[in-house]
């Protein structure tokens, strides 16, 4: 299927690896020009080179730095001559017990996973509406649907973003001008973050890491973890010209792990 977005420009945050890179690769294959961001400049440059090799017809402009900083956001947006697609993505806050989190921990979580994407949305959606096309996809977490007790910081911050998007996406001045805003909720995907979590669990419980991995995989009805490639492909469809009637939704991609009807 031709997604109809060749030649457009996309901003992809946290794009140097994992799910963000999967999204960037999928968009690159569709002929979308990219402005990509991550904190590590060296890794980001290598990712940019790989994306250019994947599709020599596109432009790829890397902008390194913490996306939570205003000057980095401004530089990333300035790298795009026209912003048609925005993929909000950022690392999640650490797990733990809420009794151990002080005010600063909460502020950092909310700033990274709620306020930062809102600032990027604020800076882009009106221009999208004026151009008659816009796609915003926020990569949040399956924990928004099924909260995980040790991820309270993430549960709270990402749920705040979810509530904000639910109202904004339905504003006629955006929706009637072909601007959609949706959340894509990953379950267990085979990323560095997931592998790091397995390592921590294995060390804590004195288990073999492969045993931990297999136990976790068996808890997913699909009996496997997702891949960054399939996540990216789904994200690319949400950014396509065919997805103009999809807005204000939370799309859970988790291999069937969520047990609810709604």
From TrEMBL:
CDD domains, A to Z: BKR_like_SDR_like
UniProt keyword annotations, A-Z: Oxidoreductase
Domain of life per record: Bacteria
Top-level EC class as recorded in UniProt: oxidoreductase
InterPro entries: NAD(P)-bd_dom_sf, SDR, SDR_fam
GO molecular function annotation: oxidoreductase activity
E.C. numbers: 1.3.1.-
PANTHER family for this protein: 3-OXOACYL-(ACYL-CARRIER-PROTEIN) REDUCTASE (PTHR42879), NADPH-DEPENDENT REDUCTASE BACG (PTHR42879:SF6)
Family as reported in the entry's similarity comment: Belongs to the short-chain dehydrogenases/reductases (SDR) family.
Name under which the protein is recorded: NADPH-dependent reductase BacG
Species of the source: Vreelandella titanicae
Origin organism lineage: Bacteria, Pseudomonadati, Pseudomonadota, Gammaproteobacteria, Oceanospirillales
């Amino acid at each position: 299927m031709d997604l109809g977005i060749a030649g457009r420009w996309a901003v992809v945050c946290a794009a140097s690896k994992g799910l963000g890179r999967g999204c960037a690769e999928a968009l690159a294959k569709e002929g979308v020009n990219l402005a990509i961001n991550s904190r590590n400049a060296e890794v980001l440059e290598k990712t940019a080179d790989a994306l250019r090799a994947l599709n020599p017809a596109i432009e790829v402009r890397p902008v390194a730095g913490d996306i939570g900083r205003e000057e980095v956001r401004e530089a990333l947006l300035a790298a795009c001559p026209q912003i048609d697609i925005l993929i909000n993505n950022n690392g999640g806050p650490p797990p733990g017990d809420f009794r151990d989190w002080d005010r600063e921990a909460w502020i950092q979580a909310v700033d990274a996973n709620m306020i930062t994407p809102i600032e990027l949305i604020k800076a882009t959606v009106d221009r999208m509406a004026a151009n008659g096309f816009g796609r915003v996809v926020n990569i949040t977490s399956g924990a928004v649907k099924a909260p995980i007790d040790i991820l309270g910081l993430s549960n709270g911050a990402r749920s705040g973003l979810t509530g904000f998007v639910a109202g904004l996406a339905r504003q006629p001045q955006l929706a009637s001008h072909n601007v959609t805003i949706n959340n894509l909720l990953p379950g267990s995907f085979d990323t560095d973050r997931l592998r790091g979590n397995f390592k921590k669990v294995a060390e804590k419980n004195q288990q073999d890491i492969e045993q931990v991995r297999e136990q976790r995989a068996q808890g997913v009805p699909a009996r496997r973890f997702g891949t960054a490639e399939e996540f990216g492909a789904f994200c690319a469809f949400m950014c396509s010209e065919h997805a103009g009637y999809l807005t204000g939704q939370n799309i859970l991609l988790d291999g069937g792990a969520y047990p609810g009807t709604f």
